[in-house]
Write a structure and sequence with these properties.
Domain DEAD-box RNA helicase Q: 50-78
Motif (Q motif): 50-78
Domain Helicase ATP-binding: 81-232
Radius of gyration: 26 Å
Strand order of the largest sheet: 8-13-12-9-11-10
Helix content: 25-40%
Shape: elongated
Number of helices: 16
Structural class: alpha/beta
Protein name: RNA helicase
Strand content: 5-15%
Bound molecules: adenosine-5'-diphosphate
Domain Helicase C-terminal: 243-404
Largest sheet: 6 strands, parallel
């Protein structure tokens, strides 16, 4: 590299819009919680964006986003895009399907478009390395949605494809997707293929790494190839959105049905309602009881065949029927805007389930309500529910707090330790003291 006179290039394209500039640190924290509890490490990270326009991409990109119905950034995109756009190296951790690809593609296009066209002996400008062919192909496909309207060329290379030399000729491709490793095992060695490629790129390059998890083996590599990185992690722990008003009632089993009717009486006129139960039999039982009480109602659970499930969901979405009894699994991902109320008739048995159920309401900026019934026998679930209330800034009812405190005391007296029922223990990239000082 010492012998090469590299042309200067621009890394920082990001201009914060006034709407974001006005956000206070408290508002930014609240917004990050809403974005599935996104966490940021490393200094000087820009605030997360809310709309595509705020990240400063071209009209052509905005049109392509619209064409493919990418209405707004996903949480990882909202935080990673402004960080990468501002020229920073980055580690992005978010589960599969969360939209990591676009999070690095959009800033990458901005970079490429800022540079002069390739000359015959040059290129590519960007290299995307992936561990599998499937991922390489998937990323290339996503890339083409944008590269085509931008007039850029992308080529995907992996062993055994028989790509012609013509295809790989310098001057032709702006972007190269490549599979240099077939397993994490190979990224540990000093002379591994990832390093061989990285070492051939100019030292003042911008480098970003994305993954669903961040295993130890990747940490050493990250230290070698990234400079003062920002780390963005999504889904470490999701939280209930602040538009949902949450109530938790400590109640006896035989008082639940009457309480349910009382709550329904209050909310049913206002919108659609989902009542969650834990088992299929309970869904059908409660359905019958509600019908008897003159509430037109449907039930949705895994025992209903797919065709009927689709039509039930359809009737619920279009408002033909506005009351549904469901199990958690059947209602996963259900997005119904006019849904005003969620009742956890059976208490959710872990944190993520609670958050997922409550998250069926309060969508797209609408106000929602979540009621949860918990019996004294179910005290072991109280800890997770308290945590969910606290993390979303809701008040914890004193009865619930008392129930949990007495349970903890009792467990302690019996010499037992209390484990949280949800299994999350995500470890991110750890900054040591010197990196902390540097990361600015
Ligand atoms: P990951 O890399 O995190 O596994 P992908 O980048 O493959 O996830 O995205 C998952 C799916 O979501 C893809 O089908 C992609 O087209 C779609 N997608 C990505 N971003 C958005 C968005 N902002 N809005 C809607 N759909 C999106």
């Amino acid at each position: 590299h010492g012998k090469i006179q590299y042309e200067a290039y621009r890394k920082n394209f990001y201009v914060e819009v006034p709407e974001l500039a006005r956000m206070t640190p408290e508002e930014v924290n609240a917004y990050r919680l809403e974005l599935e509890g996104i966490t940021v490490k490393g200094k000087g990270c820009p605030k997360p964006i809310k709309t595509w326009v705020q990240c400063g991409v071209s009209m052509k990109i905005l049109n392509a986003l619209k064409k493919h119905s990418y209405e707004k950034p996903t949480p990882i995109q909202a935080q990673a895009i402004p960080a990468i756009m501002s020229g920073r190296d980055l580690i992005g951790i978010a589960k599969t399907g969360s939209g990591k690809t676009i999070a690095f593609l959009l800033p990458m296009f901005r970079h490429i478009m800022d540079q002069r066209p390739l000359e015959e002996s040059e290129g590519p400008i960007s290299v995307i390395m992936t561990p599998t062919r499937e991922l390489a192909l998937q990323i290339t496909k996503e890339c083409k949605k944008f590269s085509k309207p931008l007039g850029l060329r992308v080529v995907c290379v992996y062993g055994g494809t028989g790509i012609s030399e013509q295809e790989l000729k310098p001057g032709k491709n702006n972007i190269l997707t490549i599979v240099p490793v077939s397993s994490v095992r190979y990224i540990r060695g000093k002379n591994c293929r990832v390093m061989r490629i990285v070492d051939n790129v100019r030292p003042d390059r911008q480098t970003v790494m994305f993954s669903a998890t961040f295993p130890r083996a990747m940490e050493a590599l990250a230290r070698r190839i990234l400079s003062k990185p920002i780390e963005v992690q999504v889904g470490g722990r999701s939280v209930v959105c602040s538009d949902v008003e949450q109530h938790v009632l400590v109640i006896d089993e035989d008082k639940k049905f009457l309480k349910l009717l009382e709550i329904l009486g209050h909310y049913q006129e206002k919108g659609s309602v989902i009542i969650f139960v834990d088992k299929q039999e309970h869904a059908d039982g409660l359905l019958k009881d509600l019908m008897k009480a003159s509430y037109p109602c449907m039930s949705l659970h895994g025992g209903i065949d797919q065709y009927d499930r689709d039509s039930i969901i359809n009737d619920f979405k279009n408002g033909a029927c506005r009351l549904m009894v469901a199990t958690s699994v059947a209602a996963r991902g259900l997005d119904v805007k006019q849904l005003i109320l969620v009742v956890n008739y059976s208490c959710p048995n872990h944190y993520e389930d609670y958050v997922h159920r409550a998250g069926r309401t309060g969508r797209a900026g609408n106000k929602g309500y979540a009621y949860t019934f918990i019996t004294e026998d179910q005290v072991r679930y109280a800890g997770d529910i308290i945590k969910a209330l606290e993390l979303s800034g809701s008040t914890v009812p004193p009865e619930l707090e008392q129930l949990w405190a007495s349970f903890k005391d009792q467990q302690k007296a019996e010499g037992k330790t209390i484990k949280s029922s949800s299994g999350f223990s995500g470890k991110g990239f750890k900054f040591d003291e010197t990196e902390h000082a540097l990361a600015n």
